[in-house]
Amino acid sequence: MEIIMQPHTQITDMKQRMSDIMLSVSWREIARTYFDNSASWFYHKMDGIDGNGGKGGFSEDEASRLKAALCDLADRIRRCADKI
Fold it and tell me: With contact defined as beta carbons under 8 Å apart, do 2 and 51 qualify?
């Protein structure tokens, strides 16, 4: 049996994908709450670079985690809006 290894794909255009909400979300809080990491780490990911200035980005797992974080935030905002 032959095992084919897929290269780890990284999403390097996350900042562009999030352009509609970039100024409305506290990315620092997203980094701390959902990733248990620093804001600078998260901003490097958003910019598609690693900590050393090379090419980086979000792994598939990290992208899934970001999606879950945004969905959780959207649900929390909706619950607050429903209280008005």
Answer: no
DSSP assigned state of 82: H
Residues whose CB is less than 8 angstroms from the CB of residue 70 and which lie 6 or more positions away in sequence, other chains included: 25, 30
Q: Which residue has the higher pLDDT, 8 or 68?
A: 68
Is the Cβ–Cβ distance between 73 and 21 less than 8 Å?
no
DSSP result, 34-72? HH-S-HHHHHHHHHTB-TTSSB--B-HHHHHHHHHHHHH
Global pTM exceeds 0.70 = yes
3-state secondary structure of 11: strand
Give the C-alpha separation, 44 to 51, whole Å.
7
